[in-house]
Amino acid sequence: MGKLPGDIGQFTELRVLDLSYNKDLTGSLTPQIGNLKNLKKLSLIGCGFTGAIPAAIGNLENLFSLSLNSNGFTGPIPASIGYLSKLRWLDLTDNKLTGSIPVSNEITPTGLDKLTKAEHFHLSDNELSGDIPLGLFKSNMTLIHVLLQNNKLTGAIPSSLGLVTSLQVVQLDRNSFSGNVPSNINRLINLTQMSLANNQLTGPIPNLTDMNLLNYIDLSNNIFDQSDAIPPWFSSLQALRIIKMHKTNLEGELPVALFSIPRLQIVDLSNNWITRTLNIGSYPSTQLQLVDLRNNQITDFDQRSQYNNSIGLRLAGNPICGESGVVDEFCSITKDTGTSYSTPCNNCVTSSCDSSLILSPNCQCAYPYRGSIIFKYPSFSSLTNPTIFMSLHDSLMEFFHKASFPVDSVALKNPTRNVDDYLVVNLEIFPSRAQSFNTTEILWITFAFVNYTFTPPEVFNYIYYFIPNPYETGNNKDKASNTGIIIGSTVGGCVVMVLLVLAGFYTFYWKEKAKRAPQQSHSFELWDPSDTCGDVPQLKGARFFTFEELHRYTNNFSEFNNIGKGGYGMVYKGSLPNGKLVAIKRARKGSSQGGLEFKTEIELLSRVHHKNVVNLIGFCFDQGEQMLVYEYIVNGTLKDSLSGRSGIWLDWTRRLKIALGAARGLQYLHDHADPPIIHRDVKTNNILLDERLDAKVADFGLSRPLSGANTTHITTEVKGTMGYMDPEYYLTQQLTEKSDTYSFGVVMLELITARNPIDNGKYIVKEVKESMNKNKELYDLQKVLDPTIGLTSPLKGFERFIDLACRCVEETQIQRPTMSEVVKELESIMELAGINRMESSSSTSASYERGSKDYSSPYDSDSLLSYSLGSLPTKLHPKNLQKAGQAERDEGVEEQAGCLWSDRLPQ
For the region Disordered, what residue ranges are annotated (predicted)? Predict the structure, then answer.
């Protein structure tokens, strides 16, 4: 895929950018990313980025979530991240970051200590060094997770850690911390999980008496002072599930009460100085799985004669096992030799499938979506216990069904421990409606894991990562991975859903214009009136470009800059020297229809200036080339959005706004342009959507001006597009403004049905009229409606909209309204729908935001499900959309739309 282009910095209204799991996205992260000041979520998980994290990332003042984990970033953590005052989620895990953790001081004005709203510091698996600064933690912080394991940090654990009483998880293992554990650490009364293992900590074993919620504690491999007494909290912390204190100089006799903690599962106290008699009591915890006391000084075992292997007791290396003739099972040095767990099939008749299909647990042959879930701190040791993994299986299926994902079954296979002692569970997810998932369904599943919307059973803990495998089916000869799917969809979607134009450099622009003035005065010297282009065009304000200029602005008309093609020729994206992006329409050599259309568009568009009409910036008539230079409209055509190719979901409100915008553009052409203009090719392919989804009428190649005696009608050769063409114009060749009205009426019907005007031999106008029943709700048109149109809001004004569309497509022109009348009626419908004129003509994308409520924690499954699925193609997920759409508005991100779906992806 290459590098993330610097052009990304021009998408200044982008709200969500998620390019996760694209290994081919490499190189450094461009500093232009700092221009995306409206960005709320940046997720680049599992890509191939290298180099330093740019300091410009601190410019993303609205950022809520920053996930750069699992890349190859090097260098220090930028102190500028401290400027992200709204940041809740910071994940830089699994990179190659070096240096110290930045905090503010007299020299540096900011650092991570400024992130007082942050709930997550995930900085593990890097090469960070030096002390944890005392000033990193403050009492006004809202941190939940501090994950710093597997770095090269040194020095003492700062006592300021005890000030952050909101903490639930602290992971500082696998560093080189030394000195005493701070005595005030027991103030962290909300802590559920703590690991300080594999350091060089000294002093007394920390007092954890008040941590009544603690269920996982690992202090292994430290050099604590020896004491004659076991710490009293061993038997008082009733939430404990796992206690690991391997090689910690622990000394004394274990209290019987330790083993009766009701949810205790694992006790690993091996390689210590535990003495005397072992007594696990008559009623140990029913969940107890493992008691590892190898290499201690235990001399006797009270329950020796009654011992059974339901509890994995390990006493090898103790004096009790050195007695002559001892053959007790607990004295042997054996490992769990049970068969690793795999989800069983449901009594399938067949045991195999044809070709590369896989048999699912429900006995269906299909292509599963595979991946691995890595759980960092599960609360169990056995990998053969079916009950534990069945609970994970059931949780996954419950999640998929509640989210209405098309999942038939799930298979868990071969759980293992990796080199970091993390649990790795291999996963196969089988489709329910076909033999394979489509692109969007793969995205649903992947993003559900990426955004932590799945909550695993409690014993697995909730710190996990999903690593997807390439998704291969019988049709995927190129073995396209879901990585490719995700980057294609996200990059394509982000290009489709962003604000495009940077503020122009005013002084530079006028200097350039002055330079071009001599060229422009001679721009028509080679214009040949005898050619198909006609007389020299009469222009107002369009700029002349040389061929060399446009050649340079489009990177030599590279394939990368090619954004479309048609009968006229190719369309290229270009960037002017002032940073403004343009769309350059280049006529094919020898194009039979390009000459007059070229002149027509130059003449007409140089005279029209309206926010709902695409703006002509200039043209090129040089070296035999004919090119038109337009403003670049970021979100493509209305047709692309209605068909689903762009991935933009249009609800009822947005469709009304688009209809009104396009109508205003046509009204301007008919009533206010000089001379008035008949477009003659109004269709959804010629209505473009800008960064605010405002409609812009485009493509004036077939347009005709009205002047003098022709203000009523003109006789002309019939041109247009079948399905949109006025039948009276077609029969009489009499062209008037009402011909555009007819075409616009077809566009209105297309807006509510998302169908082509002529589809499988059915004409949309006839089909709607024949299906209508005005005595029923929504005129009984539910069968022909786009199913996504009203999923998040009622269709207020729908009947009046249909009435207006039907008036526009009347057989005779005299029965149709003018575009001025259409605009007035649409404005009235907007008011009926509760959309005032200010909102319908707002100048910024903020008009789509309905609130300012803060985001919830990324581990809040309800809020995150709404958040992540809100950006999916809504038509494909009807069951949850009403909730998802409402959650988007509540969260103030109705127009987040950063992770979208490209029309180039296979289905």
Answer: 840-860, 877-907
For residue 681, indicate whether it is catalytic.
Answer: yes
User: What are 747-788's pLDDT values in tens digits?
Assistant: 999 999 999 998 877 889 999 999 999 999 899 898 889 888
Q: Tell me, what amino acid is at 388?
A: I
pLDDT of the residue at 202: 95
Whether residue 589 is annotated as binding a ligand: the answer is yes
CATH 3.30.200.20-classified regions of the chain: 511-631
Active-site residue (options: 681, 690, 740, 786): 681
Q: What percent of the chain has pLDDT over 90?
A: 38
pTM for this model (two decimals): 0.55
Q: Where in the chain is the domain with CATH 1.10.510.10?
A: 638-848
Rounded distance, CA 28 to CA 50, Å? Answer: 5
Residues linked to residue 607 through DSSP beta bridges, in sequence order: none
Rounded to whole angstroms, how far apart are CA atoms 607 and 615? 10
Where does residue 625 rank: exposed (0-12), middle (13-18), buried (19+ CB within 10 A)? Answer: middle
What percentage of residues in the chain have a pLDDT greater than 70?
78
Q: Which fold has domain 358-480?
A: Alpha-Beta Plaits (3.30.70)
For residue 709, how far is the Cα from the chain centroid? 57
Whether pLDDT at 523 is above 50: no
- Residue 494's SS3 state is helix
Q: Does domain 511-631 fall into CATH 3.30.200.20?
A: yes
Could you give the residue ranges of the DSSP H alpha helices within 299-349?
A: none
Q: What is the pLDDT of residue 155?
A: 96
d(C-alpha 121, C-alpha 26), whole Å: 25
Q: What is the pLDDT of residue 224?
A: 93
Mean per-residue pLDDT, 30-35: 92
2 bridge partner residues: 25
Cα 708 to chain centroid distance, Å, stands at 55
Q: What is the helix (H) or strand (E) element at residue 216, kind and residue range?
A: strand 216-218
What's the CATH number of domain 638-848, 1.20.1260.10, 3.40.30.10, 1.20.120.160, 1.10.510.10? 1.10.510.10
